[in-house]
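User: My advisor, Dr. K., asked me to get a structural model of this assembly before our group meeting. I'm new to this, so sorry if the format is off. These are the inputs:
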Amino acid sequence: MFSFCVDPSILPQWQWFACYLTSGTHLAFYWAFLVVLALILLAAPAALLFGFGGALAARSRVPPVRWLGVGYISMVRGIPDIIFFLFVPIAMDQGIEYLVHHVRCPDWTEPIRQGTDFIVCPQAKVPLNDAARWVHDAYAFVLAVVAFAIVFGAFAANTLYGAMSAVPRAQIETGEAYGMTPRQTFRRILLPQMWIYALPGLSNLWMILIKATPLLFLLGIRDVVFWARELGGAKTAQFYAYPHPDWRVWYFLALLVVYLLVTWASEKVFERIMTRLNTGQATAGGERLRRTKAAA
Amino acid sequence: MKMTRRLILAGVAMVLAAGAASAQQVIRMGTEGAYPPFNYINDAGELAGFEIDLGNELCERAGLTCEWVINDWDTIIPNLVSGNYDTIMAGMSITEARAEVIAFTRNYKFSDPSGYMALAGTDASVIETGVIAAQSNTVQAGLVADGSATLIEFPTPDETISAVRNGEADAVLADSEFLTPFVDESDGELVFIGGEVTPGQGIGMGLRQSDTELRTTFDEAIAGMREDGSLNALLKQWFGEEVPTF
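Assistant: The format is fine. Below is the predicted structure of the whole assembly, which you can bring to the meeting.
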């Protein structure tokens, strides 16, 4: 990075650290923070979408749809996350390759499963073997986002399902008295009011999602915790330009501070959203807001 | 809404186009990237080590285009059989248990003698009665598990060293090659205890059992490098003059 970094072993301490902290592996470490952030920001809305779909399905009057929704919610919530994260991406990857295989290689005669091996024709590999490295990385990232969305979507579905049932029946009845159809009462009355009941549960989920990102390494993505462990481990002078003893405690301390900062900032944001949603609501929170305003 | 639909269409089109253009096969080579001098990520953030040099040379001789993939050690075999990459070069000892799941080429390095490393002053009897650290899913872990000592396993080699330093384990059993720099640079704090043991049948490249053609290709390339001495030169470059050669 800097011109004086040619021979780190003779540098004074501050220069040594300047070089050390800008080495190629450290830049990859900093990049990993952005990857994790991108994952959270993409997985959260995707999970909300899965959750919304799941909650609607679970409320449906058509039995098969309802079974699907209830099945999704209780299955995913009942299976340990780590098993799901190992299973979903490999299953999705093999499922996609299986389908592509049948489209592209209809004349392929060898079996796809040979013992433990899973073999599709070379044209059916997703991504293809000769695809650029970033394509492979992006593909792994997308699989990770989907895996996170499926798992957290089930929890969000349960939260939203509860929130939909918590909106006072009288509110909907009033809508019906005005001649609104069920669809209209849902869109105009239930949907805007349910968020206030869903928010505490959703903010919990958001926090858990942030803390679950180290599971990314299971999916082959080198995340911040992987790099902290890799960079912090003792390095010998024989193979590394910057030898040092076991520094993992410092790296994990830095991670701790970063994670705390992110969760603290999100808490502030959720507080603001809560105030906004409570305004004018016939809830205890809304009443408290009204009184403080009236007193001021 | 329209935007997303267009993006999806563009994505599908890209995947199809990429399939049509595929001409040359690329071999993806899996490794751990955390086990110097076999394979590690150097300060520039690139893969380096004996197996990286060897793998690149083997691919060149076989006329293949190869690309390296880093994968966690614990899932390195499942991801191979599932087709995420085509070979494993990660200091993996050829053992009977592994050979039931994957195929191996002939060995490109003799089995490493493994050594017990402990804090100075530790009695050698801990090898029989103490707590021994080893990386999980390694021949060393298997060796300790079969013996009388208590085994504690760690997912990475680094953590086994830390376990000895902080007293969690009495000693660590690992390849002597890997442990030697730690002993040399510890100013007498860490020492080898007991004698050396030699588990495994050498180190080779792992492949899917159904990939017989690729296995023959790499077997021939390894045989070629053994014969003309270039493999020995690489071994000496990375492991020093005393390394057993072919």
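One thing worth pointing out at the meeting: The longest strand of chain A covers residues 113-114.

User: Perfect, thanks a lot.
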